[in-house]
Design goal:
single chain; 572 residues; alpha/beta; Rossmann fold; seven-stranded mixed beta sheet; five-stranded parallel beta sheet; 20 strands; binds adenosine-5'-diphosphate
Length: 572
């Protein structure tokens, strides 16, 4: 085995933070008296990567000194290269419970304790300084900055960790490896040079061709190393993505040239700095080469000046440090598909011949429209997996979410649309109407502002589950708050369709109708906090359908909804 395969990026040994059985038993006994810190999924991923040595030479979540140094200089306090803080953020309440010198139990959401931390530091986060250093911006339109400002805890706790057992993972266990296991495999297979390929997307033919070229260039084997940490709403589900990777893996001639392994890592979208972290991780996994894509680890979002990072910045930064890391960095070629040749060639060799290209978005759009994918863009096996998981809209589940003032006509319209969709058939239809939900899902809730909001969120959750399972959910709550509706939309859109119907009948009409006598009760003070009377209704910003039922019959209103569903392909 070559020298570079045997050592961690900084020349040292791989870290392994998993303690012996005896020590684990000791820590379990101790745990009853320990304060607990509950880790989020991304934090558990970081813990796993610390534990198994993927983050070597780190031995725990960073101390303040290391974190500050990393932010300022991209180096740990001992001078070793490290581009992004690996920190454990907590809320203020937890920070108050935890003090320096204490040992705390790190737990998952179910209470299982994979590790303990010996706390060395507790400090408040300077979000702006962190954002500027890591992301080069404090613009909250950047997803990493948004997370930092809106979801990251107010404090950080740091210190070495002792790991009792790696976090429990169930899916695709045969594709999960520690760096040690991958290195042993490389050795067994006689792989002296290995290109690490990072991705968080499905691999299509262009990326496949890129990897082939890198392998040929470096005379190396390939570690296909996709990340499978938390995904963003709208991203493809992990199981489908991994099935696609397995299909792509079979396309390498011969198949023993390539290994597929899943990396439990959550993307930060920090561009160049993150590319460097990706390179360090792959070095720890025993790679000798690492491919850096244009716009590597860049967010899709853009600010008013365009992309957050220069497309070549990630490559430049990793290349600058490749000597120190003892890792060769490979750049993507500018490949294009030339129809006449039936092959991918470097753009410089296309010589004005017809080039075919397709974006990922176009590909997804075509899938939803039930169109076949050309084989020059993706392998038929990958297309088949995608078609299974992302069927055309007419087979997908969707949620019809009617919102508006009381008496606007939501329930009436929902009931008519429900009947029509059942007449059409093909998919189960569930009406999540006020009374049914209150009786079966929220019987303990009252009508306070808070309880009404919890009720709407529960409706959204159930609608999401129905949508995920390819059914149709029809909801008709007042749902007066934009934040709640946006949250529901985001969570449902990752599973299928979300059609918001704003029943925009004006208050005066609703009040005149007053089908349940609620407005008169509210006006006479018998009900407090009634939407439209003494509590606001925040109008939807971008509803799919707007209906003012003042001058239409319920049938006509329902017809508008059905026409929309037909127009957009949800019903045939
Ligand atoms: P919500 O569910 O929005 O509180 P409901 O559907 O329970 O409202 O009540 C709306 C009332 O308005 C019903 O009595 C219904 O018959 C009447 N109505 C009149 N025109 C329409 C219309 N175009 N669409 C829906 N309801 C209408």
């Amino acid at each position: 085995m070559s020298e570079s395969l045997s050592t961690a990026p900084h020349g040292g040994e791989l870290v392994n933070l998993v303690v012996s059985e005896d020590r684990a038993a000791e820590l379990r006994d101790l745990s009853l008296n320990l304060e607990s810190v509950v880790l989020t999924d991304p934090q558990l991923s970081d813990l796993e990567l610390l534990a198994n040595g993927a983050y070597s030479p780190l031995r725990g979540f960073m101390s303040k000194m290391d974190c500050d140094q990393v932010l300022d200089t991209m180096r740990l306090s001992d001078g070793l290269l490290w581009p992004i803080p690996i920190c454990l953020d907590v809320d203020e309440e937890t920070a108050r419970r935890v003090s320096v010198g204490q040992t705390v139990a790190l737990r998952d959401a179910e209470g299982f304790m994979p590790a303990v931390m010996h706390v060395e530091d507790v400090w408040p986060v300077d979000r702006t300084a962190y954002a500027q250093a890591v992301f080069g911006t404090s613009d909250v339109a950047h997803p990493g900055v948004d997370r930092l400002f809106h979801r990251m805890g107010s404090h950080i706790i740091g210190g070495p960790v002792e790991v009792l057992s790696l976090p429990l993972r169930f899916g695709f266990r045969h594709l999960r490896h520690t760096p040690e296991e991958i290195r042993t495999l490389f050795k067994k297979l006689g792989w002296r040079s290995v290109v690490g390929f990072h991705t968080e997307k499905v691999l299509h033919r262009p990326e496949f061709e890129q990897t082939l070229r890198s392998m040929a260039h470096a005379r190396a084997n390939l570690l296909l190393h996709p990340v499978i940490g938390r995904i963003r709403p709208g991203d493809m589900d992990t199981y489908t993505r991994v099935r696609c990777y397995m299909e792509v893996c079979d396309q390498y001639p011969p198949s023993s040239m390539t290994t597929l392994s899943l990396l439990p890592y959550t993307m930060r979208y920090a561009g160049p700095r993150e590319a460097l972290l990706h390179a360090i991780i792959r070095k720890n996994y025993g790679c000798t080469h690492f491919m850096v894509a244009p716009c590597h680890a860049s967010p899709e979002a853009r600010n008013s000046n365009g992309a957050y990072y220069d497309p070549d910045a990630a490559f430049s930064l990793v290349a600058t440090h490749s000597g120190e890391l003892n890792l060769s960095v490979l750049q993507y070629e500018d490949l294009v598909y030339v129809e006449e040749d039936g092959a991918y060639v470097n753009r410089s060799q296309a010589n004005g011949r017809k080039i075919l290209s397709m974006t990922e978005d176009t590909f997804k759009k075509r899938l939803l429209e039930g169109k076949k994918t050309p084989t020059w863009f993706t392998f038929p096996e990958v297309a088949r997996e995608m078609e299974r998981s992302y069927p055309p809209k007419s087979i997908q589940g969707f949620t019809l979410f009617c919102t508006g003032l009381s008496g606007a006509g939501k329930s009436t319209i929902a009931r008519i649309v429900c009947a029509r969709l059942q007449e059409i058939g093909g998919r189960p239809v569930t009406l999540l109407d006020g009374d049914i939900v209150r009786k079966n899902l929220s019987s303990e809730l009252g009508f306070s502002k808070e309880h009404r909001d919890i009720n709407v969120r529960r409706i959204g959750y159930v609608a999401g589950e129905i949508t995920k399972n390819r059914g149709i959910a029809i909801c008709a709550p007042i749902a007066p708050y934009g934040t709640t509706r946006r949250h529901i939309r985001r969570s449902i859109e990752s599973h299928g369709g979300f059609v918001e119907v704003f029943v925009a009948t004006p208050l005066s009409v609703c009040e005149k109708r007053d089908p349940k006598g609620l407005y008169s009760k509210a006006r006479s003070g018998l009900i407090q906090g009634f939407t439209g009377v003494d509590d606001p209704y925040e109008e939807p910003e971008h509803p799919e359908v707007i209906l003012d039922t003042t001058a239409m019959t319920p049938e006509e209103a329902a017809q508008e909804v059905l026409l929309y569903l037909e127009r957009t392909g949800y019903i045939r």
